[in-house]
Amino acid sequence: MNQKILFIDRDGTIIKEPKINSQVDHFNKLYFEKNVIQALLSFKNNGFHLVMITNQDGLGTDKFPKIDFDGPHNLMLQVLISQGVIFDDILICPHTIKDNCSCRKPKTKLVEKWLINDIIDKDNSYVIGDRLTDVQLAYNMNIKSIRYGEEGKNWDEISQYLNKYKRHAIIKRTTKETEVSVEVWLDLVDQSNINTGIGFFDHMLEQIAIHGGFCMNIDVKGDLHIDDHHTIEDTGIVLGQVLLKALGNKIGIGRFGFVLPMDGCLANCVLDISGRPYIDFKAKFNYQYIGNLSTEMIEHFFNSLSYGMMSAIHLKSEGTNDHHLIESLFKSFGRSLRQAIRLEDNTIPSSKGII
């Protein structure tokens, strides 16, 4: 399975680079960049793997004895480890530019083992550093880059960008009855593309995305020549699963959410992304179909969604117009979901420490 990996420069990015000789060769030269530890920890919590990659000019020579490097470097690592930040790998080029080696950034010799084994999730991996050589390294690795420092972003901005705007997941499920593909971007507001073969159902699923404040692509091929049961059921299951997957470890989410009035009806949705499936559904419909959607499948959809998402959903609506009644249920769920998935801090909203 491909991994989200951050290849992070050391001097000038994790720790400050001294103006005198640019070498951290003594303990009194060791200073961390502002908010770097909090950012690195948040990346670990959000599923990123960390790799340190650094050029250390002349390391091991009389100009830069290894013993001078090791003391501050090891102390830096001890501090990071004490805070829960552990690097999967530490890659050091000890050469100078004049050596014309194959491992000095932006050349890729140091990261070769990561490239040849096809480990990297190239859509979600980055090189982070303060120099143009870091940007060039990312280009040579065919991944993205983030420039740090005066010419780029600070650690708070990088943390917000990588953690808040990258909650994405895709799940595909094939059975003898349906082929379902659902992809969601929880922090991207954009046009959703939805095609289940059931027009009114597509319209309702779009309401979840619009009022949930995210976008999704849903493509379903089901046995509609029989009826709409399997298509709606399996869409609910996979949508729930992909929302759960996109939420990741759920650190910082609001977890709960509620309520929506609409023409001629009042809908109430109370949601808890609890890790425990439960559904309490209350709504009565006057007709068997709205468009080509059978109304008895509305409850079944939310039941499937609850189990796929491992969440408790209390959903009810009262009214006389079936179209508005159903729409209010989907809109209120979307609004409730919007509150529940919103990132508020860096903690898990549970006394158990896990949800």
TrEMBL record:
> Which cofactors does this protein require?
Zn(2+); Mg(2+)
Q: Which UniProt keywords apply?
A: Amino-acid biosynthesis, Cytoplasm, Histidine biosynthesis, Hydrolase, Lyase, Magnesium, Metal-binding, Multifunctional enzyme, Zinc
Give the residues the record marks as binding Zn(2+).
Answer: C93, H95, C101, C103
Q: Can you say where in the cell this protein is located? A: Cytoplasm
Tell me which residues this entry annotates as catalytic: D9, D11
Extract the CDD domains matched here: HAD_HisB-N, IGPD
Q: Which GO terms describe its molecular function?
A: histidinol-phosphatase activity; imidazoleglycerol-phosphate dehydratase activity; metal ion binding
Query: Which residues lie within the region annotated Histidinol-phosphatase?
Result: 1-166
Protein family per UniProt: In the N-terminal section; belongs to the histidinol-phosphatase family.
Please give the name of this protein. Histidine biosynthesis bifunctional protein HisB
